[in-house]
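Progress report, Aim 2. The chain analyzed during this reporting quarter is listed below.
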Amino acid sequence: MCYLKAYDPLVTIIYFLCVMSVSVFTTNPILQACSLFAGAAAAVFLKGRRSIKLLIGCTAVIAVMGATNPIFVHRGMTELFKLGENSYTLESLLYGVSLGCSIASLILWFSVFNSIVSQDDILAVFGKHLPKTALVISMILAFIPKLRRKYTDLYHCSCGCGETRRKDLRRTSRLFTACMAYEAERVLDISMAMKARGYGLRNRTCAASRHFRAADLGAMAFILALTIVCYVYLGTGKLDYWFYPRLSPNGLCPVPQLCFFILCISPLFFIIKEKLIWRSYPANN
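Predicted C-alpha cells for the chain:
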C-alpha cells in the first residue's frame, strides 16, 4: 500500500508528472541519481521480487548506453584509448551513462506509476472533460500487463495439454497471435459496451467516488512547491551540467537537489512506515 493511493487521483498523477518531467529535462548527475535511486527503491518495495527483472533491464540500459556512446560520439578531451582511428573519451562515456540513467529512471517511474494509478483513477480525473482521451490512455497503460498475463495463461494451458516447456519461435508466434486476437475482440466488446451505455455524451453524468479534501490540497501544494523550486533553478541555469569538451565544474547546488530528493523519496517514507506498522502490531483475534 502506497500513501499516494490514499489521496485524490489528481494528486497522484501530478506527482508522477512532476518527478518525471524534472528527470527528463535535467542532465545534472545528482538529480538523475536521486530519481534513479528513488524509482528503484519504490519499485522494489511495491513489487518485491517481481522488480528484479526490471532492475536488471535498467542496469543493462545504462551499461549499453554508456559503452556504445563513445563509439559513435568522439567528443571530449580525456582520451581513454584508441578505437581504430577514433578516440574513446571519458566525457562521451559519462554522457552515455547519464543518458542511460535518464531512460532507466523513466522506465522505473512508469513502472511505479502503473502499479499505483489504475484505470479507474485515470477515468476519474479525465473522464468528465476528456472521456475519449481518458479511455484511450487507460487502455494503453493496461494493455501490456494484460497481454503478459494472457500470454502466461496460454503458455501454461499449452503445457497442460502435453506440449513441452521449451520456448521456440513457432510456439511463441502462435501464442502471441492468439493473445492479439483475444485483445482485439475484447477491445471491440468494450467499445460497443461503452457506446451502448452512452459514454462520452454531453448529458452523461459522472459520479465521483471521493472528493477533493484538505489533505489532498496540502499534498498538492507540497508537491508543486518542491517542483517549482527545482524548475526555478533549472531555468536560471544553476543546475546546468555539461560533459563536452570537459566535465562541468558547476551544477552542485544543494537547495534544489535537496528539494528534488525529498520529492522523489517522499512516497518511500510512507511505504516503509506502512510496512513497519503492519509488522509491529499483532493481529487482534
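The longest helix spans residues 131-160. DSSP finds nine helices and two strands in the chain. These observations will guide the mutagenesis work planned for the next reporting period.
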